[in-house]
């Protein structure tokens, strides 16, 4: 192997500092959430305890954290499933160059770059003027889709840009119908990427703040609840909550990555019978 | 058959179209309409008046706040670009094994999938008056008294922006760098280009689409933000997003809508210019 140039070491240090910058603060509040009962919002640690975590599980004045968590979880799953289905359908549509596809594409890009508070404000105004009640599962759900769907669509573009059309041709040549081609050839091939779309759908919804702000109604989602806490909670209980939320997110990411990895492995094993004389 | 194919395409695109019509196009239309309405202290009423715009453009605060918003966007863009490009360059050209590349890339992207609010909160123990940064600086004898401008200041706002959004630069730039044909770099070396010359004349031009996509993300996220500025400045600094959210809090929806229309026009104008330099669909 060639010797590494000096620039490698300089850049490696830069990269390490960047990772420290990314994770340092999160790790710090992770440590601080174990503050003793008398501890404050910053170092030094005043003993070590699970006091603040216990606080979270007890009935308390700060708000309905667990209700908010359940709502965010349900909404995340709802948004995830919708994002996967709608993105795949749209991805398939965009391979066909239908009339109006350019316009729809620019709409999706607009949806991605529009300041989130505009979606919040606009949807809130429409519901208000129509006399409808805003609720996280209706107006909140729709507003979050304007954030997750463009990501799903862009991933589908990336997937289909690399898709080998000869698989479909082979299926058609063997007499598969259009639906059979999609069901038994296209979908299994793109399945690992769909896990990526699902990950985006769930986590972007679970953490979404600005688009849900005016559209979730009287029942808060978790990010809204946490933000509310920042103004009136001055104890490490907020760190404990932050730590738990982050751990939950990391767990979710881990599950999705493992699923994607497992699927790729399975395909390696079973995907091709070439050379096995079957 | 072509007719059936087009029909199928429309049917497959219908759900996306429907969502975007209901929750993007209709809300924008509503905002434009309401921006001409009037407001009392408790309610808003339909009208067609230019009062909201007249007030907006007549107030010196508007120009100050827009200027501050551009300032945040410009500084954040420059910093995220410098950091993002360097990180992507290291990953793409200095890490040799592909497994390691993927692992380090994931390490950089994971925070993207965790909560922005929590990531903002986690700066408090660092930057506060008795925070880690101030304690360290005093222990080292750099300052005698704690620095007040670390938290609740422009510095904190920009730090948080860079912390939250550098990923949006790293990912697209890394993506375009990975597509650069190694033969081109070899050719540059064989023709006697130094490392810096290769970087300047080969890699940089070929990475432009990725830089553009990252720029679109960072600029629009910062221009439309209201929560980072509010939280990290302790409500002491303003940008356009906060102007809108303050009006909303006071139930002054028509005034908020007028500001929103001007902000949207500004952002779309910037994006339209940037999109001239890159074909997003090709770059994915």
TrEMBL record, chain A:
Protein name: Putative spermidine/putrescine transport system permease protein
A Pfam family per the record: BPD_transp_1
Membrane topology annotation: Multi-pass membrane protein
Cellular component GO terms, alphabetical: plasma membrane
CDD domains the UniProt entry points to: TM_PBP2 (cd06261)
ABC transmembrane type-1 domain sequence ranges: 69-256
Transmembrane segments: 73-94, 103-127, 147-163, 184-206, 237-259
The keyword Cell inner membrane is annotated on this UniProt entry: no
Lineage of producing organism: Bacteria, Pseudomonadati, Pseudomonadota, Alphaproteobacteria, Rhodobacterales
Organism superkingdom: Bacteria
Automatic annotation (TrEMBL), chain B:
Descriptive protein name: Putative spermidine/putrescine transport system permease protein
GO-annotated biological processes: transmembrane transport
Organism per entry: Salipiger aestuarii
Membrane topology: Multi-pass membrane protein
An example Gene Ontology CC term for this record: plasma membrane
Keywords, ordered alphabetically: Cell membrane, Membrane, Transmembrane, Transmembrane helix, Transport
Highest taxon in the source lineage: Bacteria
PROSITE patterns referenced in this protein's UniProt entry, alphabetically: ABC_TM1
Family to which the UniProt record says this protein belongs: Belongs to the binding-protein-dependent transport system permease family. CysTW subfamily.
Domain spans labelled ABC transmembrane type-1: 66-274
Membrane-crossing segments per the record: 12-37, 72-92, 104-124, 149-174, 210-233, 253-278
Compartmental location: Cell membrane
């Amino acid at each position: 192997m060639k010797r590494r140039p000096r620039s490698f070491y300089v850049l490696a240090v830069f990269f390490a500092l960047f990772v420290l910058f990314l994770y340092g603060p999160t790790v710090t509040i992770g440590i601080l959430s174990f503050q003793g009962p008398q501890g404050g919002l910053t170092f030094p640690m005043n003993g070590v305890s699970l006091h603040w975590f216990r606080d979270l599980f007890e009935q308390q004045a700060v708000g309905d954290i667990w209700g908010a968590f359940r709502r965010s979880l349900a909404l995340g799953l709802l948004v995830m499933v919708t994002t996967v289905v709608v993105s795949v359908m749209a991805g398939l549509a965009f391979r066909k160059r239908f009339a109006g596809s350019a316009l729809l594409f620019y709409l999706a890009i607009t949806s991605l770059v529009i300041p989130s508070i505009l979606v919040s404000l606009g949807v809130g105004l429409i519901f208000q003027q129509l006399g409808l009640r805003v609720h996280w599962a209706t107006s909140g759900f729709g507003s979050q889709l304007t954030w997750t769907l463009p990501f799903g669509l862009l991933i589908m573009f990336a997937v289909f840009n690399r898709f080998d059309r000869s698989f479909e041709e082979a299926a058609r040549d063997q007499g598969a119908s259009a639906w059979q081609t999609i069901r038994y050839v296209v979908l299994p091939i793109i399945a690992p990427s769909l896990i990526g779309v699902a990950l985006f759908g769930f986590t972007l919804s679970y953490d979404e703040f600005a688009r849900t702000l005016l559209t979730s109604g009287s029942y808060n989602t978790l990010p809204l609840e946490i933000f509310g806490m920042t103004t009136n909670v001055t104890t490490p209980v907020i760190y404990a909550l932050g730590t738990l939320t982050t751990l939950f997110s990391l767990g979710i990411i881990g599950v999705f990555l493992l699923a994607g990895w497992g699927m790729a492995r399975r395909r390696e094993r079973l995907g091709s019978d070439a050379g096995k004389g079957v | 058959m072509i007719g059936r194919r087009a029909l199928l395409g429309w049917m497959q695109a219908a759900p996306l179209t429907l969502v975007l019509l209901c929750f993007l196009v209709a809300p924008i239309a509503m905002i434009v309409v309401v921006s001409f309405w009037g407001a009392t202290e408790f309610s808003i009423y339909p009208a067609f008046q230019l009062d909201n715009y007249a007030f907006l453009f007549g107030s010196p605060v508007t120009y100050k706040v827009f200027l501050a918003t551009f300032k945040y966007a410009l500084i954040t863009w420059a910093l995220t670009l410098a950091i993002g490009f360097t990180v992507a360059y290291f990953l793409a050209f200095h890490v040799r094994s592909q497994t390691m590349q993927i692992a380090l890339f994931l390490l950089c992207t994971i925070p993207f999938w965790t909560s922005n609010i929590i990531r903002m909160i986690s700066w408090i123990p660092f930057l506060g008056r008795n925070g880690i940064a101030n304690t360290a600086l005093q222990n080292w004898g750099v300052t005698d008294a704690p620095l007040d401008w670390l938290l609740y200041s422009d510095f904190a706002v920009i730090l948080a922006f860079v912390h939250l959004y550098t990923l949006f630069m790293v990912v697209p730039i890394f993506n375009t760098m990975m597509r650069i044909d190694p033969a081109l770099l070899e050719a540059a070396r064989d023709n006697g280009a130094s490392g810096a010359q290769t970087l300047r004349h080969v890699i940089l031009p070929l990475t432009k689409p990725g830089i553009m996509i990252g720029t679109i993300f960072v600029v629009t996220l910062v221009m439309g933000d209201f929560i980072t500025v509010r939280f990290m400045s302790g409500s002491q600094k303003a940008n356009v997003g906060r102007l809108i959210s303050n009006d909303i809090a006071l139930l002054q929806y028509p005034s908020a809508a007028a500001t929103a229309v001007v902000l949207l026009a500004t952002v779309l104008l910037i994006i339209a210019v940037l999109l001239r330099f890159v074909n997003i669909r090709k770059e994915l």
